[in-house]
Amino acid sequence: MKTYLIAIFMLVFSYLAQSQTQEKSVQLKQINIVKTNYRDFKSGEIVNKKISFQDGKLLSIKTSDVIQNFFYNQKGLLDRSVKEKEGSNWKEVINYAYDENNRLIKFGKKYQEGAEFVTKTVTITYQGARVKVITQKSTTKEAIIDNIEYIVENGLVVRRSSRDRNEQIINKTEYIYTNGNIVRHTGLLGDKSVKYYTFDDKNSPELLLVKSVFGENYKVIVPLVSFHEEEFNFQMISEANELSYRTTAIKDIVKSGKYKYNELNYPTSFSLSEEGGRVKTVKTYFYE
């Protein structure tokens, strides 16, 4: 009996060790995205996007004639990104700052809006379970353009509230998680629409991306940044891969997609259909 139990223990230990080794060894190398829009063109308007990685960390994103490069601090956390347009002086620079616990405390964005040069500063403070996020913009007379409060429970953002200049809550959204995935955004005040998401039970490359960019605090940082930087989506912190999306909003948007996977249960490709097939997106994933 003792020998039998030892054999079972060794088998379980070997399986766990192998799973951990596989998880650590899988790194993103490249993601190719082709989006075809059939709304106004019978043959389809095509946009190509290439996302490149180095040692598993996000290196650059190139879309048509625009490229965004990413740079990291000594701790391996995202420090700065620079977006430039080929053949133009246009540039967008984003800076990130962290505290001693590697929590994001400041987000700065410098860009051109028409003929004006704009600096947007997002300041983040932590007060127990509450995270206060204040946004200021150099081109406005108002001292604060956004006053947001997040509630964090068990390491996850569960509510987001927006306040007006009189500190009255004007919008509130609740986030519901199942098996580590964000399955519902429920509007409680202001916009009361509900967004529903479904997921597979496989490994997520988007999760690999945000973990390598923002480190241990990615589950809080990504939701905060997602409202200011389009390349980081709130849903990217989910453990699995998003299959479909629908909403109760008046202009209902429905998305549904299909994946193909490799032997480690990571997607190798993803096909997404939107607006009844009028917009189609194909993603191809490469690992190392």
Q: Which second-level CATH architecture applies?
A: Beta Barrel
Uncertain parts: 12-23
Instruction: Tell me the distance between the termini.
Output: 43 Å
- Global outline: globular
Number of helices: 3
Broad CATH class: Mainly Beta
Strand content: over 45%
According to CATH, the fold-level topology is Porin
Query: Fraction of residues in helices?
Result: 10-25%
State the total count of DSSP E strands.
18
Rg is: 21 Å
Secondary structure category: mainly beta
Order of SSEs: HEEEEEEEEEEEEEEHHEEEE
What average pLDDT do the residues reach?
A: 90
The number of distinct structural domains comes to 1
**Largest beta-sheet characterization:** 18 strands, antiparallel, barrel
Describe the structure in brief.
With 288 residues, this protein is mostly beta strands. It is built from three helices and 18 strands.
Structural notes for this entry:
- With 288 residues, this protein is mainly beta.
- The chain has one domain (2-287): Porin (Beta Barrel), CATH 2.40.160.
- The chain is 15% helix and 52% strand.
- It is built from 3 helices and 18 strands.
- The chain has an 18-stranded antiparallel beta barrel.
- The model is unreliable at 12-23 (pLDDT under 50).
